[in-house]
Write a structure and sequence with these properties.
The structure is a single chain. The protein is an all-alpha fold. The chain has 2 domains: 10-560, no CATH class; 569-679. 76% of the residues lie in helices and 3% in strands. The protein has helices at residues 15-33, 38-63, 87-110, 117-136, 140-158, 164-195, 204-207, 213-228, 237-243, 246-271, 283-308, 314-339, 344-375, 391-405, 411-430, 433-461, 477-495, 497-510, 516-523, 530-552, 566-625, 630-691, 696-701, 707-726, and strands at 10-12, 67-76, 79-85. Strands 1-2-3 form a 3-stranded mixed sheet. A hairpin with a 2-residue loop joins strand 2 and strand 3 (79-85). The protein is globular, with a radius of gyration of 33 Å. The two termini are 46 Å apart.
């Protein structure tokens, strides 16, 4: 039967809180220093990110022996802020801190041509604190707390340039970020309500008993899937990446979208696994869950790769590429859940691909940013022949491009080999031919990836240089240092896959209770198997054919119709439909209430008047027509006159009510008519707060500059967390 490959020991340490708190405190310090000296601000941010890397390395060293755990009496009511760091979280944390440090070194040059640099570095550090917190927490509420901190702070990175395009992308980013956060919070509340705990630990026995357990799982996947760029929740990525500064784009793509994948990973492979692994019947729920994620991953990788073929903006190509690469990671997470205790290959595959993607994609964004910084161009048609002006950038970009294409000897190949083995295992273990189709799409996506990345490289660095295209200056030292470091790591991982597998991936996978046989199979996998190498030859051949046909017939220059996008096919019609339903139903309710309220006095009057007429007619018939019955009718008339008096009273009462009602309507109409100008003034003021960028007052309160309000929030947070740290 299954056997845990590692016994969890824990140690209490304040290191995780310090790692998250230092960037947050540093953000406030950077904002202060930047008011007096930009040079010292830059050096301060560089030193601080370097310190975070050192502390993260120390935390990794500790967690490699035993998990680090700590609780603090701040959080959500009775639920404390809870940190728990295992090997997986420590690796993700160190990876994020190191990429952040490289982006900081790159920013020293790149940000010199940008405005609002102090604001950039302030929220750059706040985003770092939130991102690292996601990887270090041990329960859903604490994870949600840092997840939202990261989303709010990174919004200022997306809208940094404050162009109309940037603000539009920022609004979409913020809206989807908040929506995703609400999904995570709603699911967390439901889990806490029914189970009494939100600790990220094997809890399938309790989760399957929750009413609407499928809804809880769906909310968690949607919430984290938005940040991960999972199709069809990816629409913010192609909009946000091109408008953000290149260092921020590198972090959005290389690190921050990994927080979404990390959340899905923790939910699927930890929370939705049974504490008692003998309860095999419960694994079917997780397996079905994993099967769905497999196909979301396949859909994500293929759709985004196809869209990348037809983009003309270099950063937009990389944005779609990031979505596609996240599809590989999501597919690996899905296969891991689908195979259950037999899933070490999938776990190792997506863990390695997360590391690989962080380096080659962050590097490519920074390299494209370096080209833009010196040429001012980002459109492929306006670029070309730049290899002489960018010798180091050209070589490292080629290395990264071959890495993402999965060329043997570079890092991308190693991760894709493991992921390919995993999807093949999923098919062979269960003989579901839909998974065979998934494996074929996996291979085809690899060919498309190779094609669009070759087009990107050739369009920027090869061919003839367009007239008027000039590059200012030469490659600065900091760019060369960052790019050479990234290139060296890509080559090292690709040429030493067994070392990386044994020293890094194996220990990460060992913390999960997989069966030993399949764990040993992962450790002994042959990366240079002729089937894998032959598969890469086929992929490169198909990619070359696609590249030739697309270039020869100018297919890549075709502009895809706007209605073909998910935004136009799904989201906009859905918004219109819900808007129509809600407005129509609200209008119907309003008319119904108004009809009852307005017409009831009139109906009462009509009833009273009608009753009086009928009584008069009855009097005429009884008194004048039925002469023999005069005595009887006289008595009846006496009784009826009492009814007449009652009806008269009712008529007068209803008339008074109608008068009061008409007076009330007149007062309301006069009040609203008189205050219309006042309300419109307020509306226009609030509207200008959102969109007006001129004038000292509006610059201060403009929501595009709402860092002032966030700074107040984060300052309070700093004080609270500092008290806990030094208590």
């Amino acid at each position: 039967m299954s056997e845990s490959l590692g016994i969890e020991n824990t140690i209490s340490s304040s290191l995780p809180l310090a790692i998250t708190l230092i960037p947050i405190i540093g953000a406030a310090a950077a904002a202060f220093i930047g008011r007096y000296s930009e040079k010292y601000r830059d050096y301060f941010v560089l030193a601080l990110t370097a310190l975070v890397v050192l502390l993260s390395a120390l935390l990794l060293n500790i967690s490699w022996q035993e998990s680090v755990v700590n609780r603090y009496n701040i959080g959500f009511g009775e639920i404390p802020l809870y940190f728990k760091v295992d090997k997986l979280g420590a690796v993700f944390n160190l990876l994020s801190a190191f990429i952040w440090f490289l982006a900081t070194v790159f920013s020293l040059t790149y940000m010199t041509h940008e405005q609002r640099r102090t604001r950039y570095y302030t929220f750059y550090l706040l985003t770092l604190g939130g991102t690292l917190g996601v990887f270090l927490t041990g329960d859903l509420f604490s994870l949600f707390f840092f997840f939202e901190m990261m989303s709010l702070a990174s919004y200022l990175l997306v809208i940094h340039n404050q162009t109309e395009e940037a603000l539009s992308a920022g609004r979409l980013y913020l809206f989807l970020g908040i929506f995703g956060g609400l999904c995570i919070l709603s699911a967390s509340i439901m889990i806490y309500w029914y189970t009494g705990s939100v600790i990220i630990t094997p809890s399938l026995e309790a989760l399957v008993l929750i009413p609407g357990s499928i809804l809880v799982a769906a909310l968690l996947v949607i919430g984290f899937g938005i940040k991960a760029g999972m199709v069809p929740l990816h629409i913010w990525l192609p909009k946000a990446h091109p408008v953000a500064p290149s260092p921020a784009s590198a972090l959005l793509s290389g690190i921050m979208i990994k927080t979404g994948a990390y959340g899905i990973l923790r939910v699927v492979t930890v929370m939705y696994t049974p504490a008692d692994h003998e309860a095999k019947l419960l694994w079917s729920f997780t397996a079905e869950f994993g099967y769905i994620i497999i196909w979301f991953g396949i859909l994500t990788m293929f759709t985004a790769a196809f869209m990348a073929l037809f983009q003309q903006n270099a950063k937009r190509i990389l944005a779609y590429s990031s979505v596609s690469q996240m599809g590989y990671i999501l597919m690996g997470i899905g296969v891991c859940a689908y195979l259950g205790l037999e899933g070490p290959m999938a776990m190792g595959g997506f863990s390695l691909h997360v590391i690989n993607h962080a380096f080659f994609k962050a590097g490519m964004f920074m390299m494209v940013g370096a080209v833009y910084f010196r040429t001012g161009e980002i459109e492929l048609k306006k670029l070309g022949g730049l290899w002489r002006e960018f010798p180091v950038t050209t070589v490292v970009f080629l290395i990264a491009a071959m890495g993402i294409a999965g060329i043997p000897g570079l890092n991308g190949y190693t991760g894709k080999v493991l992921l390919h083995h995993a999807i093949v295992e999923a098919f062979e273990h269960h003989h579901d031919y839909s998974l065979y189709l998934a494996e074929r799409i996996f291979m085809l996506t690899g060919a498309i990836t190779t094609c669009y990345i070759a087009r990107l490289f050739s369009s920027i660095f090869l061919g003839k240089k367009p007239k008027g295209l000039t590059a200012k200056g030469s490659e600065p030292w900091n760019e060369r240092a960052v790019f050479i470091t990234i290139g060296a790591i890509i080559v090292f991982i690709g040429t030493n896959p067994f070392f990386v597998l044994k020293k890094l991936i194996g220990p990460i996978v060992s913390i999960f209770p997989f069966e030993k046989y399949y764990f040993n199979y992962l450790i002994k996998v042959n990366f240079w198997d002729h089937h894998d190498l032959q598969g890469m030859v086929y992929i490169v051949a198909i990619a070359a054919l696609l590249f030739y046909v697309g270039t020869r017939f100018k297919l890549f220059e075709l502009k895809l119709p706007g209605w073909l996008s998910i935004e136009h096919l799904v989201y906009r019609p859905a918004v219109k439909m819900f808007t129509y339903i809600f407005t129509r139903s609200g209008r119907a309710l309003e008319l119904t209430v108004d009809g009852v309220y307005i017409n009831s006095p009139r109906l009462l009057t009509y009833y009273c008047i009608t009753g009086r007429i009928l009584d008069s007619a009855a009097d005429y018939l009884i008194v004048d027509t039925l002469e023999p019955l005069k005595k009887i009718s006289y008595k009846l008339n006496t009784l009826e006159r009492g009814g007449h008096n009652f009806n008269t009273l009712m008529v007068k009462t209803s008339s008074l009510l109608l008068y009061i009602y008409d007076l009330w309507l007149f007062i309301l109409h006069s009040a609203f008519h008189g205050s219309k100008k006042f309300f419109m003034t307020i509306f226009n003021f609030l509207f200008q707060i959102d969109y007006k960028h001129e004038g000292r007052f509006y610059v201060l309160v403009n929501t595009a500059n709402f860092e002032y309000y966030l700074l107040i929030f984060f300052m309070v947070l700093i004080i609270i967390m500092s008290l806990q740290l030094f208590a």
